[in-house]
Write a structure and sequence with these properties.
alpha+beta, Glutamine Phosphoribosylpyrophosphate, subunit 1, domain 1, seven-stranded antiparallel β-sheet, 7 helices, 14 strands, EgtC_Actinobacteria, Ntn_hydrolases_N, hydrolase, glutamine amidotransferase
């Protein structure tokens, strides 16, 4: 269900990261190599990116498949960014929300994506939804599981949690309410990337020159790609990648992270 990617590094055309790689997100929309659930990601796509000097990201989202959007091909060729989050979508259930259901979701400086599915949706999260203020529920961009998971994480961010704590607590809470859910979450503010591996694949590439990519699957065969173990929280900057087992998570996320060496 879905493929996504986040990037931090020197400015590059969007297409160099999303379209040009032999197994990039563009190709993953119809031929993913490591997707465990679903086969075609043609129910929408989106990309959010940060323009230099502007902390609020821009977004381009559509309800159809990425390969059918000629305007995106032009945009990806000329727009450059040093930070982005992009996703192609395989809908869990049919719905009428169109591009509003396509990641990335956004609030302030944040961009968010969910690769996976909540089991028993929507009933399984009815109790959790009642923990949100009514205005947050009314402001949901779409009526799908990903939008509600984002609202739960965003409430924690607005409450003062750092990105790692917000994603980790959201995953553990949703997994307890809906066992068997797949909750690979991806979050960026243009300076950091935070992600969870919970039920589906997650990889990262820590390249030279202050460059980090986190993705559902590698977009090429570079041997430096590393798979993130399941049940793991990833926190990355342009220079460092930290992995923390979610099953061992305590209130202090910084208590025992493992620092992955740069190549």
């Amino acid at each position: 269900m879905c493929r996504h990617l986040a990037f931090l590094g020197p400015e590059e055309p969007l297409g160099r990261l999303l379209v040009e790689p032999p197994h990039g997100l563009y190709r993953q929309s119809w031929a993913p190599r490591r997707q465990r659930y679903g086969t075609v990601n043609a129910d929408g796509f989106g990309v959010g990116w940060y323009a230099q000097g502007d902390p609020a990201p821009a977004r381009y989202r559509r309800a159809g498949p990425i390969w059918a959007d000629l305007s995106f091909a032009d945009l990806a060729r000329v727009v450059r960014a040093g930070a982005l989050l992009a996703a192609v979508r395989d809908a869990t259930l049919s719905g009428a929300d169109a591009e509003a259901a396509a990641a990335p979701f956004a609030a302030g400086r944040w961009l968010f994506s969910h690769n996976g599915a909540v089991t028993g949706w929507p009933g399984s999260l009815s109790a959790l939804s009642r923990t949100l203020p009514p205005e947050d529920l009314l402001a949901l961009e779409a009526r799908n599981d990903s939008a509600l998971v984002w609202a739960l994480a965003l409430a924690r961010l607005r409450g003062g949690d750092d990105a790692g704590q917000a994603l980790a607590d959201t995953v553990l809470e949703v997994a307890a309410a809906a066992p068997g859910s797949r909750l690979n979450l991806l979050l960026t503010d243009g300076e950091t990337i935070t992600a969870t591996a919970w039920g589906d694949t997650l990889w990262y590439l820590a390249g030279p020159g202050r460059r980090t990519v986190v993705a559902s699957e590698p977009y090429d065969d570079d041997p430096r790609w590393r798979e993130v173990p399941d049940r793991t929280l990833l926190a990355a900057s342009r220079t460092d990648v930290l992995l923390t087992p979610l099953k061992d998570l305590t209130e202090d996320l910084a208590s025992a992270p493992s620092k992955e060496p740069r190549p």
